[in-house]
Here is the input.
Amino acid sequence: MVNSISVLGSTGSVGKQTLDVAERLNIPVKAISGNRNIKLLEKQARRFKPEFVCAYDEESAKHLKIALADTNIKVGGGMTALSDCACAYAGCVVTAVSGSVGLIPTLSAIGEGHRIALANKETLVCAGEIVMRRAREKEAEIIPVDSEHSAIFQCLEAQGKEKALKRILLTASGGPFRGMTREETEKVTPEMAVAHPNWSMGAKISVDSATMMNKGLEFIEAMHLFSVTPDKIKVIIHPESIIHSMVEYKDGCVMAQLGVPDMALPIQYALTYPERKSSNTPVPDFAQLSRLTFFDPEPQKTPCLMLAMDCARRGGTAAAVMSAANEEAVNLFLHKKLAFNAICDIVADAVDYISTSGTPTLDVLQGADEAARRFVLENCRKY
Ligand code: MG
Here is the structure.
């Protein structure tokens, strides 16, 4: 088990649950970060007494500094402080920020050889090859927190060898609009999209689940985490979210990891690995469930997933462009400035206009990220 943690994105859904898990397991929290929610950051700082608190938004950091003036907790703002939060205080960093802002602090933490409990999928989607290569060089462990990847990680660990792996079966709930046609999703509002049937999550990931871009991001994340080619990953719809993903071995054996849909479980395992500790999470009541169902995704009803799988095959900057364009498009949708179906349309066009092939450097990837965001902001009125 890790002996202390830093939590990037402690005010988000996974971040809050991470603090609860840490409290229950008596793991000291050395540093936390958020963006603008300084009320909650202050509350968390007083409860967990970290050495350092970062508000990524610099204006908010100034206010937080005043709010915590009666304590001896250090306060910082901006990307340097976020990277400090990741590097300077604990040997394990939980990266639970939303979006590609997680990339630089994750790379900084890897540079220190820290364990990364990875809950930020955009980091690997944007720069998976660079991140995984650095992690190997620095012998930094990357333990997935995303429930599907935690499942795959556990299934592979039970077997002990990735060599015998034939295929990854990545399960998807299908989101709240599973099986709906494009006509039927035309009038989807942000309120409808953020109400997920199985998981309670932040707004961005809830919209990603509704478009199934989340599964697309996870597809690319899995490719990098487990060093497999896109043809070795199969997405399967499993609406009950009891199986969190499976691994198929050469001999035809399939291993699955099961549990109730509760992020506390994969969060805890990323902190206690390779040990297992008792938890508050109930086990599934199988007799009550009575059946588990599975479907193949229908390509015409899952355009974002198909786009992500296409970007995975294209390589180059395609996935980074897709992910950044999607972040901006989802944000516009949440502010009612873009229609639900237009998210996929504008992201696909951004990929077509901006992405390049070849092996990109970090600078090239960051340039592509910025260009993708600009494309969406400049063109959103046309959709
Ligand atoms: Mg997931």
About this structure: The mean pLDDT is 95. Residues 315-383 form a domain with the Rna Polymerase Sigma Factor; Chain: A fold (CATH 1.10.1740.10). The CA atoms of residues 255 and 289 lie 20 Å apart. The chain has three domains: 5-144, 146-262+284-314, 315-383.
